[in-house]
Amino acid sequence: MAPDRSEWTDLLDQACRGEGLGVAYQPIVDTVRGTVVGYEALARFPGFDEKSPEVWFSTARAAGRAADLEAAALRLALGARNRLPANCFLTVNVSPDLLAGDVIRHVWREQGDLSGLVIELTEQVPIDSYGHLEPDLDQLRAAGALIAVDDAGAGYAGLRHLISLRPSIIKIDRDLIRDVDRDEAKRALIDMLGTFANRVDAWILAEGIETAEELDTVAALGVPLVQGYYLAKPSDPWAPIPLETAHRLAARDRTDQGHAVRHLVEPAFTASTVEAAADAFAVDARLQFVVLLSDDRRPIRVLTPFSAARGETSPGLRLNLDTPIPAALARAVTRPEEHRFEPMAVTDNAGRFAGIVRMERLITALAGNGSSATS
Q1: Closest C-alpha to 11, from 20, 110, 310
Q2: What is the DSSP string of 142-183?
């Protein structure tokens, strides 16, 4: 049973004193090196029956205690700052409407030097204008802190805030990352945010990575920083990421960036028979393509729901990872008209399946609009 109003008053008093409060730290990973470069501090409530941070902070806001609770969480998170691993930064979350208040300002004054600290402005409360926060943001930057913005791409207001704040780190909203390996429009928007980040000297951080396919896709797009349950869940300080995940990222070949097909490759659903592919299409209406593989994982053809239903097994066009983009397009347009704009299977030097490349990505890259999301 949820606490009643009088009980919440006592519980909030305890939490605002730091009693029953905890912090978990989630790794932030460099997609180029496959190493942990930072941690995000996330408030937890292990000393209470109610565990949900969302419930706690919304209740505190309703009771007029939001600043006190956020300050208590900040102090606890910052208490581990002196033990932070070398060459790592620490990210803490702050509601922007509380940033200019004395309670939160006092937390920064206690810290003094804010080097290595990233202050992330959350989207919990809509803010029409960040202009009144500029003096506080300038002071934080002068003390050595970097500013991050949460939920970029979540709407027009979020894009306006990017223009106003000029953050050092732009966090891409989880809704934009979900199923990004299947959605060309989402990849195009991430490219757009990457172009903006490059122009204002900022970093893109993709949060909420939950599958290997999402990780591979954002890494292929050039997103430099990632975090999410697939990499590591929030835990005690200072957890590493699994060794196989680190190797997965570090092994990515980035030579000749932007000139070869390998930099446009994305993962795809695979099947060993046409019947299995047809079943996959029937189960998932969003599935657009399935790659038919031989027993030794060599691609036979890329199937659509239509071609799977027809039982087509004739070999399709295959490209090598190092095929130049113009050559790939020249080969693609030689296909029969009904298959001309379907994705193509891509293989490594041993002929094994490496992924697919879509025609729209080849065309965009050749036109010079395929900007990566790196900083």
Answers
A1: 20
A2: HTT-EEEEEEETS-HHHHHHHHHH--SEEEEPHHHHTTGGG-
- Report angle CA 266, 208, 75 to the nearest 5 degrees: 150
Listed in sequence order, the residues at least 6 apart from 153 whose beta carbon sits closer than 8 Å to its beta carbon are 159, 172, 173, 176, 189, 190, 193
- 12-60: per-residue pLDDT in tens? 999 999 999 999 999 999 988 889 999 999 999 999 999 999 999 999 9
Distance CA 360, CA 358 (A): 5
Residue with tokens 């490219």: 191
Residue 119: its H or E element: strand 117-121
Backbone angles phi, psi at 237, to 5 degrees: -70, 145
Question: What sign has the CA pseudo-torsion 201, 207, 210, 214?
Answer: negative
| Residue 89 β-bridge partners | 38
Q: Name the strands in the sheet holding 290-293, side by side, starting at the edge strand that comes first in the sequence.
A: 269-271, 290-293, 299-303
